UniProtKB/TrEMBL annotation:
It comes from the Eukaryota. GO terms for cellular component: nucleus. GO terms for biological process: regulation of gene expression. Keywords: ANK repeat, Repeat. Gene3D superfamilies: Ankyrin repeat-containing domain, Hypothetical protein af1432. ANK repeats lie at residues 112-144, 145-178, 179-211. This is (pine wood nematode) hypothetical protein.
Length: 435
């Protein structure tokens, strides 16, 4: 039952339906007729902006907060904030707006003691969780039951989320809830083997007992998982030291650096598979290519270059590495307002981070990236021209497919190509454009 008059209740119900369905124009019209509906509460204590956050109705939220910024802090009867609702519902654009434009408490907790990060972690909303963390969300926050975001992620088997949480400074791998269970115990008990093995490799104590005096090993359903956890733990012991003598910090960071950290690497590669190239986005190209597809085509084209003149293997590797840092910092173009020197620093740091996941190739990946940036070898010069050629070839394809003009890309590369086969390839592309 809604609070207030029947007529107002009916209007409010109509407003809520528009907001939950992300129909801002209908919602705006109702509010224009009766602005008091913005403060009208339903039986759960929610007001219009809460339902807008639930439905991802960003235009309505922007309109409301423009004149009523204090509503960004409104909570319902269970203590759910606007940011918390948007985070739990998975509305990235709403979360981004609230964190960047409003006075929100990223660490606000509801009546159960749960924060926005708890819900993002539970639902494996990687992008939202990352944004919350970047804006100061506490990674070790515990609810009224002692459960932290990592407990929720581990219980659901969200490997990538566990990886993200564990990468944060100060993250505690052996944080225990009120029952004494760590994330590792929950992962093992719920048969999320991959998550459990990852946690063990990150230093989670396989011998830690909960209040029932059971360890993660006691919850193993198979001998195979028990063996894998023991193997993971043994890899963390520095030579000449007993595992039991290691402190928590040392257990977390005493990695076996001879092995690949596969899950953070996979996350980075996944980002590249879905990261749309900024230049096409700025020019409103429908369905623009991703960074990964750009690098893949470059790598294939690199295999067609003259092996008498170039180290083809090196060219292929360079093509696959040259934009890898964008997985972390994004595809930064001149229109983004970032200076060339700052862009270099950001990408260099990102490349160092990503290459650290593959210790045996770390130096090679960094060297290839640096050669490309500095155009210091004939292979780097060739790959740089290949990069620009792929861009103009893609521009031609989009012009023909969508009947749009992308002249900027052709003008910016005039006179850029200095060696074959790029000179000939470029002439052929421009010839097709002018037909």
């Amino acid at each position: 039952m809604l609070k207030g008059t029947t007529e107002k209740s009916n209007k409010y119900s109509e407003l809520v339906e528009f907001l939950r369905s992300n129909l801002p124009e209908g919602a705006k019209k109702i509010v224009q007729e009766d602005k008091s509906l913005l403060n009208f509460k339903d039986d759960s204590g929610r007001i219009a902006i809460h339902w807008a956050a639930s439905g991802g109705c960003l235009p309505f939220i922007e309109l409301v907060l423009r004149d009523n910024p204090e509503m960004a802090l409104a909570t319902d009867d269970s203590g759910w904030s606007v940011l918390m609702i948007a985070s739990s519902a998975g509305h990235f654009d709403v979360v981004k707006y609230l964190l960047s434009s409003c006075d929100c408490d990223v660490n606000h907790r509801n009546s159960n003691g749960q924060s926005s990060l708890h819900y993002a972690a539970s639902k494996n909303l990687i992008s939202i969780a990352r944004m919350l963390l970047e804006n100061g969300a506490e990674v070790n926050v515990q609810d009224n039951y002692g459960s932290a975001p990592i407990h929720r992620a581990a219980a659901k088997g969200h490997v990538d989320m566990v990886m993200l949480l564990m990468s944060q400074k100060g993250a505690r791998v052996d944080l225990a809830d009120r029952e004494g269970n760590t994330a590792l115990q929950m992962a093992v008990e719920d048969q999320n083997d991959s998550t459990a093995i990852l946690l063990a490799k990150k230093g989670a104590d396989i011998n830690r007992q909960n209040r029932e005096e059971k360890t993660p090993l006691d919850y193993c359903k198979t001998a195979d998982l028990r063996r894998k956890l023991q193997d993971a733990a043994s890899e963390l012991v520095p030579q000449g030291r007993a595992f039991g003598a290691l402190g928590n910090f040392e257990r977390i960071f005493a990695f076996n650096m001879s092995s690949i950290e596969i899950f953070p690497l996979l996350e980075c590669l996944d980002n590249l598979k879905h990261l749309k190239r900024t230049g096409w986005v700025h020019h409103k190209v429908p369905e623009p290519e991703t960074v990964a597809s750009h690098m893949y085509r470059m790598a294939v084209l690199a295999m067609t270059l003259d092996p008498k003149e170039l180290d083809i293997n090196k060219c292929v590797k360079m093509a696959l590495v040259h934009d890898i840092g964008e997985s972390i910092v994004g595809d930064i173009t001149p229109r983004c307002g970032v200076s060339a020197s700052e862009k270099f620093k950001l990408e260099e740091k990102a490349v160092n981070t990503i290459s650290s996941y593959v210790p045996m190739a770390k130096d090679e990946w960094y060297q290839l990236w640096m050669e490309y940036e500095n155009a210091s070898t004939k292979e780097a010069i060739a790959v740089k021209q290949l990069d620009k050629f792929d861009m103009v070839a893609q521009a031609l394809s989009y012009e023909q497919k969508y009947n749009i003009s992308l002249d900027d890309f052709f003008k910016s590369t005039e006179g850029f190509f200095t060696t074959e086969p790029f000179i000939s390839w470029d002439k052929e592309v421009r010839s097709k454009k002018n037909k």
